[in-house]
Amino acid sequence: MSHARPLSASLFDQEPDFPDTGYPDTGFHDSGHPEAGDFVPDHYADAPEPSIIHGDWPEDDAPQGTRDPVATARDILKRVYGYSAFRGNQEDIITHVIQGGDALVLMPTGGGKSLCFQIPALARPGVAIVVSPLIALMRDQVDTLRQAGVRAAYLNSTLDWREALDVERACERGDLDLLYVAPERLVTPRFLELLDRSRISLFALDEAHCVSQWGHDFRPEYLQLSVLHERFPTVPRIALTATADAQTQADIVERLALGEARQFVSSFDRPNITYRVAPKDNERRQLLDFIRRHHAEDAGIVYCLSRARVEALADWLKDQGLDALPYHAGLDASVRQANQDRFIKGEGVVVVATIAFGMGIDKPNVRFVVHMDAPKSLEAYYQETGRAGRDGLPANALMLYGLQDVVMLRQMMDASDSSAQHKRTERRKLDALLGFCETAHCRRQVLLTYFGEEHPGNCGNCDTCFEPVETWDGTVAAQKALSAVYRTGQKFGVGHLIDVLRGGATEKVVRFGHDQLKTFGCGAEISKGDWQTVFRQLVALGHLTADPEGHGGLMLTDQAASVLKGQETVRLRRDRAVLSGDGRRGGGRAGGGRAGPSLAPPDDKLWHKLKAVRLELAKAQGVPPYVIFHDSTLMEMVISRPRDLTGLGLLPGVGVRKLERYGATFLDAILSEAG
Ligand code: ADP
Ligand code: ZN
């Protein structure tokens, strides 16, 4: 390794990406043109199927849901979705909205927000209007609902005028249960007039944080949504978001005039995600070992900071035999779309991406998210890792983290020319992130505390819980390190500093006369690798910072003085061998150390067979496999091996319509394997 090389140069070969916000150039946005090869649903041209609910509900003029909202909600949950119990506060939310109440729902990704408006939509007479900012999300939800026999459609730029007209007519006639629409279309006179002519059951405002300028994906069109309440004051509204911070929440209430709405706040814990942060040590090897060992057949996302790193890593993974694809904002829109499609509609695809990837990805069986570079805040980290395990099954979040990351993040922040106040916020966020990376405590506790939620710790599902981290009194080592920085003039990188500390008389050390310093050789007892972790932690703790010019030199901060003067002790964590403890918990259901399919099914052969059956059915219809059955449902089939359709129909995720449509096919597969 060349010590003279700026530490961060290799990471910073290109500007970091920004998240794909779904604005016009991405093709996700409603005002964009449909892209070549885009999936255009053909089913709206046909007469709509009878609704699973409204088709066979007893003729009764009273709004169905108001008779007994709880019983109605549970009935729909079982019949349409095939689930037997609500999660968290779903039932409260749903019954409240069925009865005509307004609601603001804050629930983490994967918490089950969709059901909170879909079930009231089915219970109340009329069509529910769902405002959704991303075409990919609309499509996904409509595909899912139609598979379950619900009369759902969307109106967006991917439909030609004829198809759009069909949808509008269906809406007026009362032939739709749910209609998804982008915010900019909703507020057009044409659409508002359509609403005047239709019977509306409720308005659902998905991704409601888009109304807030403080949030990460502000959409000005959301501001106009208050028109709905003015124009249709008696129609209940339900706003939903996974963004929890107080400022955004207050904005949503104010700008959407939801002051009277009941607020439902869920825990933001994602108990099925296993969190791990491992020191970098041959990162590619670590990644490959991790995927091969835990996720050989799984879909996952690997985040890198720069486009160049994305390309190089995707190529390398491909060479290693993985089904890996790159995704970043510098790729052609058609390539991005194609890669995203392969990820969503395929099985076991790994996307290597910048943060441009992820918005609008609803794929429930993303089994792992890896950060090859530290993200810049815990908010970003939580959002990105939150894309794993939406289906509630075990999932892994792994961050590989090293000295370079810390130095670069500090340097980026110091170099930014934002206002003093802004800088303070950035510093606080960065400190929180670094604190999370370096913690010796339960990671989940650190995360949830940061988001303002209490958690007792010892979650039993993070690396520090699997294997407690040792700490040691690093005060003397820290003093030596800081003094080496000071005496060499605060302009050298870690490699050189370690040479000085360990008494390595390299050409460079001699040239600068650093072999004459008092600190030369004063730290020979500590290995090179251990010194690196000491320096990393000193930067993370804020005693050292990177020189703002980006030459990779380290400088003392004001804080360092108290350590040098012996007024402050420094406790350091002892890094462990990489990815030690595979996290396997009793019962093998935890996110950690499984190999192969996430849930270690008792019969691999049947599991693969069922996945193949599902993929074939999905391909024939041009939909993602998970809209047919979730992995968890296939897993239940493997575990319980139903012998007839009645048995199959009892499994979670098998609703009435899916049983009719796919029951025989899957049953055949199960019976033939059993025989
Ligand atoms: P969110 O929109 O909050 O990210 P979704 O509505 O997409 O979450 O739900 C996440 C997953 O959980 C979906 O695949 C959904 O089918 C499933 N799910 C939701 N509610 C339940 C429930 N009560 N029982 C079982 N699975 C559920
Ligand atoms: Zn823990």
Automatic annotation (TrEMBL):
Q: What class of enzyme is it?
A: isomerase
Ranges of compositional bias, category Basic and acidic residues: 27-46
| All copies of domain HRDC, residue ranges | 600-675
Q: Which GO terms describe its biological process?
A: DNA recombination; DNA repair; DNA replication; SOS response
Where would I find the Helicase ATP-binding domain in this sequence?
A: 94-262
> Which molecular function GO terms apply here?
3'-5' DNA helicase activity; ATP binding; DNA binding; four-way junction helicase activity; hydrolase activity; metal ion binding
The protein's UniProt keywords, in alphabetical order, are: ATP-binding, DNA damage, DNA recombination, DNA repair, DNA-binding, Helicase, Hydrolase, Isomerase, Metal-binding, Nucleotide-binding, Zinc
Swiss-Prot/TrEMBL catalytic activity: Couples ATP hydrolysis with the unwinding of duplex DNA by translocating in the 3'-5' direction
Provide the E.C. number(s) assigned to this enzyme: 5.6.2.4
Q: According to its record, what are the GO cellular component terms?
A: bacterial nucleoid; cytoplasm; replisome
Q: Enumerate the InterPro entries for this protein.
A: DEAD/DEAH_box_helicase_dom, DNA_helicase_ATP-dep_RecQ, DNA_helicase_ATP-dep_RecQ_bac, Helicase_ATP-bd, Helicase_C-like, HRDC-like_sf, HRDC_dom, HRDC_dom_sf
Which residue ranges does the record assign to the Helicase C-terminal domain? Answer: 283-431
Query: What cofactor is this protein dependent on?
Result: Mg(2+); Zn(2+)
Where do the record's region annotations for Disordered lie? 1-67, 578-601
- Name one matching Pfam family: HRDC
So which domain of life are we looking at? Bacteria
Q: Which NCBIfam families match?
A: recQ, recQ_fam
Q: Name the family the entry cites.
A: Belongs to the helicase family. RecQ subfamily.
This one is known as DNA helicase RecQ
Q: The organism's lineage?
A: Bacteria, Pseudomonadati, Pseudomonadota, Alphaproteobacteria, Rhodospirillales
